[in-house]
Amino acid sequence: MSGAKDIVLRHPVVVCPLDHAACKQEMEAIEQSAKDAAHISPDNPMLPAPSIVRANDPGGLRTLGVAMVGGHRKPLIE
């Protein structure tokens, strides 16, 4: 194996527990998240103020971005 440094691999090797397509999708999502996070300052991320939502609050689901539609919880679209 002393000459192994001279071996040229023409196909990229992907080491991932998922198949190649799923791994590629995950890597693209991670790259996009990293690009988005690069614009946020860790010192002042401008997060909204924390709020406490109790189980019996009348507007609790709306606060969480959920609405009851036909007895099922669905994402709230405004």
What does this structure look like?
This protein is α+β, with helices and mostly antiparallel strands. It is built from two helices and two strands, in the order ααββ. The protein has helices at 20-37, 60-63; strands at 66-69, 72-75. A two-stranded antiparallel ribbon has the order 1-2. A hairpin with a 2-residue loop joins strand 1 (66-69) and strand 2. The termini are far apart.
In helices, the fraction of residues equals 25-40%
Total helices: the number is 2
Name the overall outline: elongated
How can the largest sheet be summarized? 2 strands, antiparallel
Backbone CA Rg:
23 Å
The CA-CA distance between the termini, in Å, is: 63 Å
What strand line-up does the widest sheet have?
Answer: 1-2
Percent strand equals 5-15%
Give the low-pLDDT segments.
none
Average pLDDT across residues? 79
Q: Would you report the number of β strands?
A: 2
Give the H and E element order. HHEE
Structural class by SSE content: alpha+beta
Based on the structure, what is the oligomeric state of the protein chains?
single chain
Provide key terms for this protein:
2 helices; alpha+beta; 78 residues
How would you concisely characterize the structure shown here?
By secondary structure, this protein is of the alpha+beta class.
